[in-house]
Amino acid sequence: MAAHPVSPLAPKSYPDLPEIAGVRFATAEAGIKYKNRTDVLLMAFDEGTTAAGVLTRSKCSSAAVDWCRANLPGGVARGLVVNSGNANAFTGAKGKQSVAMTADYAAKALGCSPSEVFLASTGVIGEPLSADKFAGVLDEAATRMAETPWIEPAKAIMTTDTFPKLSGAILEIDGVEVKINGIAKGSGMIAPDMATMLSFVVTDMPIAAPVLQALLARHVDTSFNAITVDSDTSTSDTLLAFATGKAGVEPIQSVDDPRAETFGEALRDVLLDLAIQVVRDGEGATKQVSVHVEGATSDASAFRIAKSIADSPLVKTAIAGEDANWGRVVMAVGKAGEPADRDKLAIRFGDLLVAKDGERAPGYDEAATSAYMKGEELELTVSLGLGEGRATVYTCDLTHGYITINGDYRS
Amino acid sequence: MAAHPVSPLAPKSYPDLPEIAGVRFATAEAGIKYKNRTDVLLMAFDEGTTAAGVLTRSKCSSAAVDWCRANLPGGVARGLVVNSGNANAFTGAKGKQSVAMTADYAAKALGCSPSEVFLASTGVIGEPLSADKFAGVLDEAATRMAETPWIEPAKAIMTTDTFPKLSGAILEIDGVEVKINGIAKGSGMIAPDMATMLSFVVTDMPIAAPVLQALLARHVDTSFNAITVDSDTSTSDTLLAFATGKAGVEPIQSVDDPRAETFGEALRDVLLDLAIQVVRDGEGATKQVSVHVEGATSDASAFRIAKSIADSPLVKTAIAGEDANWGRVVMAVGKAGEPADRDKLAIRFGDLLVAKDGERAPGYDEAATSAYMKGEELELTVSLGLGEGRATVYTCDLTHGYITINGDYRS
Questions:
Q1: Whether A206 and A319 share a structural domain
Q2: pLDDT per residue over B194-250, tens digit each?
Q3: B145 is in which domain, residue-wise?
Q4: Are A409 and B311 an interchain contact pair (Cβ–Cβ within 8 Å)?
Q5: Could you tell me the CATH number of the domain that includes residue A389?
Q6: Do residues A203 and A241 lie in contact, with contact meaning Cβ atoms separated by under 8 Å?
Q7: B330 contacts A89? CB cut-off 8 A
Q8: Would you say residue B207 lies in a domain?
Q9: B238 tagged catalytic
Q10: Mind telling me which residues the site (Cleavage) is annotated on (chains A, B) (predicted)?
Q11: pLDDT tens-digit readout, A81-131
């Protein structure tokens, strides 16, 4: 299925996510760009399903993103259509028309209103995407909807991904088992300016749409918005959450309900797990890197410094080369434009202190640091010594694989 | 000399810059990092030489940058010492001490005050640089100062550069021939947040330091500050200009002197030529790209959009792959966070209109566009259709060469 070798950071196995009452789906081969693989996902939600979402802030957002933005305030969902291979972005009036027609087809197939159908498209930008591609495909898919296996929708939405991304959580609320399932896709054009590319989360928890929206917005900041592969932000970034309400507990109607906290934590675990999987499938990635910044003047400042480090091509190529080049971390701190005092700066690679008080740490051990760099999961920590602000950004290394994948994506 | 193959964009020949009265120099092998090549430049200026400079805005600036910042307000210069192989950045109190001692050595060798000596260092960050390296070397160099050939200082300051960078201008002011010579180094860690890496410009024009400073600041914005190789900003970026005043015309004492405009234009030509050479020697570069943005709400907004495009790894890898992937240009416009209206956007590759009114241009010719991408110098133009703001940013493509060079720079 994958045009490129599977990421060395791919999981050894995939979680066997359970069915979630009120959610059924089918995938299909529409031949939009890829051959001999599924490229369309149709998902149906029972009546009463609430919806929330976080969409790209790109000024050139795709037609599907515009569609979701228009329908999210309704807060209800009955269907979801996702295709891979064509982003339907920068396709003008044709793209807008295509999106409306696709929602119509799906609404007819599912027996609901078009405004209750959410849409997402991912793939090449600027190629018109004809709604004709979907007409028969959606009707046929609607005849064979199932509740499992969840790996199928995860596969259908892949583009340059080398493995499908799934995550789930089961928690207990009021003595009742509540489930959260999530899938995501994304490998390049990944930057933490918004939710990355596509991710869909469903739960059987009864929860009002505004509460679901608030929890999603809160937890996206430390998950999908805290990852970067290449600092490029997609036109199509879409994270949608759907709650069928079938779990048989009293609904959460307010963020002040103490159960919102419990549910939010589980939601956050699923989002972060999916976000990390996106980084581990970053185009050409051979290492996963967590960049921690502490002691900043604020959390926001810490985040911008962490992002400056995680986005730096020089830091990322050094990591690819297993070179403990902490001088480039200094450079990236310096260019971030945030408050920093060179002479208070300390840097750790894992537990190894490499720099302190603005110079190489006394007792710096090049051999130990180089050995640490050979690991597959690396932790870089920068201590600014200025305040209490802290943040973590997750990224991967920058390798020949990234160049190869992106030098010939369209051809 | 170069550890990596010479850039395919290297010039076929180098200008034979003339002597400039009041300027002499020598280069030497101090063995700081490189073997069998010069790595130290000592330059001497006659009494009466004015100085101006633009330095990195990095919060982690090098000891040499701090030294220059402290001495620039004096506005006079008698000497310049530059070394390659070690940036003396993030070297704490030792670095500060080393810089003061180096200035002392140079002042003794040249017979001037240490505060009249300017310093610049480039190379690895975080390695202590002992001033002992310079003691005998500077004394010896001072015994064999010459006025030419200018290619020698250009070579001595190279690091990962694959060719020396020189540029000059001869202009007539008040019927007298006035000369400007410039050299630069830089190949990676290049971003337009400040003058890039190192560049030194000398002229025999009599010009007051504040006027020289004003002209330098004005013209750096559209030259060194308008280039990017990898979006990474160095800790050591330094652009210094020295004016010996030997040209035998009345000095320029004010920016309102109409001759300041004439001189400034020639200065700008030299700065831009040097800046373009840095891009053409960008690590791994195989293509030079000019990104023009027009129709923005302001020049500053146009610049930020142009930089977003020029910094985008996805745009740069597509160019490396000779892929006319204008959808990635749309993406980079969208992520810039500046005012843009998708449905008014037009994009040209060279003279070829590829997108218009927010979608693929009618009559878009994939074959012609692909053929254009095979060129060595490319022009991308984005028209926003919102206002009169315009800017140009110069960059290169992102290739396997960049990864190779930066994956093992220290080792």
A1: no
A2: 334 688 888 999 999 989 988 888 888 878 777 766 666 666 677 788 899 999 999
A3: 23-280
A4: no
A5: 3.10.20.340
A6: yes
A7: yes
A8: yes
A9: no
A10: 195-196
A11: 999 888 887 788 888 999 999 999 999 999 999 999 999 988 877 788 888
